[in-house]
Amino acid sequence: MAYVDFLSQVxxxxxxxxxxxxxxxxxxxxxxKAKNWGYDYWDGDRKICYGGYTYDGxxxxxxxxxxxxxxxxxxxxxxxxxxxxxxxLYDFTQVLPGLDVTGIDISDYAIENAKEEIKDRVQVGHAKxxxxxxxxxxxxxxxxxxxxxxxxxxxxxxxxxxxxGRKNKYICVESYRNEEEKVNLLYWQVTCEMFCTxxxxxxxxxxxxxxxxxxxIYFE
Length: 220
Fold this sequence. Notes:
By secondary structure, the protein is α/β, with parallel strands linked by helices.
């Protein structure tokens, strides 16, 4: 298991006003709306969550970096847990044609509004119970998803990732290293349930015998 950072370039491209996030819209109401995983979460007011999640190619460099790092080949099978509208999966097919991509997400809205080119490759489902055979995928990825689970479901999800991934796995989750980052995370998030330091995340990975790679998102 190694720390591999594929996400900082995307995460740091967004400018965030943490104080405005909690002052401009009632935080509890934003969280209630966001946790429906519907229009408000993806395409509603920016004060609630994404404020319009549309394809802009930002995930292409991430897909390329992963394809290079994991030495992917046409025909390899990739699973994205928490795929949203499937933008990363689509970009995988662009940087390396011939990849066999599959996505799963808890949001009916996201799957219904997935990128047309890969819409038949994504489905509604939960990370805690993956509807796939053991050792089915060459690469399993989960980006900014698992911290949205309660601890009992996180445990199941990590075991499931190990079960369906026969080779490479990669997880990215939110974390904090100090009180400032902890407050910023609390101010910004609307769906997070696992508020863990890197050391706590490492404990979870070890406890669930997770053998893949990982990285953390910090709200600096």
